[in-house]
Amino acid sequence: MAHVRKLIRDNIESTLTGLTTTGSKVFVTRVYPISAGSLPGLAIYTRSETSDYITIGSSRSVDRSLTVTVEAYVQGTTGYDDQIDQIASEVEAALAIDVTRGGYAKDTRITAFDADYSADPDQPVAYASITIEVDYVTIDGIPEVAA
To answer: Which residues of 55-72 are buried (b: 16+ CB within 10 A; e: fewer)?
Structure first.
């Protein structure tokens, strides 16, 4: 069985696959294959997680806060900001449909947005990083089951 962290990441991938602007160009990886055929597209990965024990004893509950990054990439010579904002809007709307991530989480919220661009003259690419916090609970020693 997979760690709940992976199940949440998989849920975010399936939630964001098929958006109007990015379609099926969704990759669960830190290294996004930036090529003309894969843009606009999304890269999804987990960055970090914090945990805190909320009960004591032999079956301790672990309250976890998972940071997931969704990076949006677009290519062109104009309209970067508009395209990035459109993708961000679609991502936000899709994630809001089920903040429990299929029952694995207690809450999902977007906590940050950053945008930048690569000035490579052969392939100018703009990208945005959308930071998502997902809160979930497991039992100590059983990270494959959401509590």
So the answer is: eeeeeebbbbebbbbbbb
The CATH number given to whatever domain includes residue 125 is: 3.30.70.1700
Cα–Cα distance for residue pair 10/87, rounded to 1 Å:
19
Q: Count the domains in the chain.
A: 1
Please give the Cα distance from 52 to 68 (Å, whole number).
18
Question: What range defines the domain where residue 56 resides?
Answer: 4-146
CA 124 to chain centre: 24
User: CA-to-CA distance for 119 and 16, rounded, in angstroms?
Assistant: 27
Structure confidence by residue, pLDDT tens digits, 124-140: 889 999 999 999 999 99
What would the mean pLDDT of 39-51 be, rounded to a whole number? 95
Model confidence at 5: pLDDT above 90: yes
Residues pairing with 75 in the sheet: 125
Please tell me whether the overall predicted TM-score, pTM, comes out greater than 0.90 for this model. Answer: yes
